[in-house]
Amino acid sequence: MRFDVITLFPAQFTALTEEGVVARALQRRIAEIHLRNPRDDTTDVHRSVDDRPYGGGPGMVMRYAPLRAAIEAARAEAAAAGVRSRVAYLSPQGERIHQAKIARISAAPGWVLIAGRYEGVDERLIEDCVDEEWSIGDYVLSGGELAAMVVMDAVIRLLPGALGHADSARQDSHANGLLDCPHYTRPETIADQRVPQVLLSGDHRAIERWRLQQALGRTWQRRPELLQERGMSDVEQQLLDD
Ligand code: SAM
User: Fold this and answer.
1) pLDDT in tens, 200-224
2) What Rg do the C-alpha atoms of the chain give, in angstroms?
3) pTM for the full model?
4) Cβ(54) to ligand 1 under 6 A?
5) Sheet of 32-36, strands arranged across
6) Do 2-156 and 173-241 share a fold?
7) What Gene3D superfamilies is this protein classified in (predicted)?
8) ipTM for this model
């Protein structure tokens, strides 16, 4: 899977590309991240990427021409590598991203992501070049870089081979509509808190049932609306009935 990110601050992406799950996935060529600065696609002497807003008011707006040139160059490079990319603009006005959407994003071969700055981008760019707008939550960041990294991290860790253990993504919160169960590691006792006995039992069916019960209980306590949307699978019902 390939991401081409259009950003004025490519150095920020080292947070994602130098350490951890995503960095490993990049090394193993499970995913690719290409960074493109629209300043490199300017044609004027000042290499300007922003300008004052029509109608006045505070802040600056990212200009159409450098962004369009960057998007076209990124799509052409992806196409030359055999990848047909769609274009997404990270925006607090976009569709709010959740885990099911992350799974759909991961099914596409490539994305060009536009990280906005200032007051955002010229609206005509969205009209002409953007397929989707994505928000990572109802708050405003200074730029789309962190939002792009959030989405890429969540997507890349789902790709086959990205995580050490294939099951871990399946058990995570939101993967199956539930929150994850609690986890424990050594030592068995900390102060007067003991690890639940069932986890030491070696009885895999009992452990699976306990984990499902915990996940259901937590979801009911913390996010009851998730349970209402979800219901219960036959396998889960049978496990609880055992
Ligand atoms: N004036 C814009 C508005 O109110 O809709 C906000 C601009 S914001 C200061 C600058 C950039 O940060 C945006 O263009 C967008 O790329 C990014 N951004 C801010 N909040 C975001 C969010 N919640 N999700 C995704 N991107 C966000």
Assistant:
1) 999 999 999 999 999 999 999 999 9
2) 22
3) 0.96
4) no
5) 32-36, 2-6, 110-115, 85-96, 132-135
6) no
7) 3.40.1280.10, tRNA(m1g37)methyltransferase, domain 2 (1.10.1270.20)
8) 0.99
Of 128, 95, 129, nearest to 113 by C-alpha is 129
Residue nearest to atom 9 of ligand 1 (CA): 142
User: Could you tell me which CATH class the domain 173-241 is placed in?
Assistant: mainly alpha
Q: HSE of 207 in the Cβ direction (CA atoms, 13 Å)?
A: 11
For ligand 1, mutation pick of 95, 98, 139, 141 (most atoms within 8 Å of CB): 141
Residue that is written with structure tokens 């080292």 in the block = 14
- Report residue 235: phi and psi, to 5°: -60, -45
Distances (CA, A) of 125 to 10, 130, 155: 21, 7, 25
For 62, the 3-state DSSP assignment is strand
The CATH class of the 2-156 domain is alpha beta
The residue written with tokens 């992501």 in the block is 113
For the chain, give every domain's residue range: 2-156, 173-241
Residues 6+ away with beta carbon under 8 Å from 129: 67, 68, 71, 87
